Amino acid sequence: MSANIIRLLPDEERALLECYVAGSQHPASFQQLFDTMEVPTDAVPDRLQIAVAQILLHHVQDSLPQWASTTSDGTLETNRKRHKRHKDARLHFTPRLLFEINWATSGPGFEWPEAYHVTYVPGLEKYIFTASRDGADALGCEDHAIGAADRTDDLQRAAKKVLTSYWRHQVDEWGQGRWESCIEEGLIDDRTANAWAEAVWHRRGKNTSFEV
């Protein structure tokens, strides 16, 4: 059944997902596909990470974090760019929200949200985890894949491993401070999400605020 379902994916998208979960270096031939999908070239995450997230989150992108404002003439402006998928894509994935955080509040109405989702990929028998922001301001892209796990893994344990590794990388790379609050619960509740954060920042003594 799973093998039949994944055949609904264009060969190009299947190749991207297979490469990501295998942890392989993506071939140069992927660059043309990245360009077609309008994957940014100057973002912090790798283009493969961004492309994978665009594929998995495409069907739910309107529910992802979004910054919006109204101009003086009543025009609504938004910060999130819509994802593109292959024209022959027929498989809609079903991402599930783990939880959403606010890194910091830099002013009235100016929060820095990031939502974490997990998506099961049939045929590959893998879970893929993604991070989504309300715009490309921070990392140069709205969404990117941050890890994968086997279908047989305990989902909560796998989520903890992926999320804490993701945060620790930010601490190690640019001294990222702890996020401010959990603003929406999903498969993971507020208490658990905060316990994971404490395991990252308390141990390192990193209690500086988020730099914006």
Written overview of the protein:
This protein has 212 residues and is of the alpha+beta class. It has one domain (2-63, 84-204). The chain contains six helices and seven strands. It has helices spanning 2-6, 11-22, 30-36, 47-57, 155-174, 190-204; strands spanning 68-70, 76-78, 96-107, 110-121, 126-133, 143-150, 181-185. The strands form two sheets. The protein has a five-stranded antiparallel beta sheet, sandwiched between helices. Strand 4 and strand 5 (126-133) form a beta hairpin. Helix 5 packs parallel to helix 6 (190-204). The N and C termini lie far apart (47 Å). Mean pLDDT is 88; it is low at 206-212.
- Principal-axis shape equals globular
Nearest-angstrom radius of gyration?
17 Å
What are the segments in which pLDDT stays under 50 over at least 5 consecutive residues? 206-212
Strand arrangement within the widest β-sheet reads 6-5-4-3-7
Task: For the structure shown, list the relevant keywords.
212 residues, alpha+beta, two-stranded antiparallel ribbon, 6 helices, disordered C terminus
Describe the structure concisely.
The protein is of the alpha+beta class. It has 6 helices and 7 strands, in the order H-H-H-H-E-E-E-E-E-E-H-E-H.
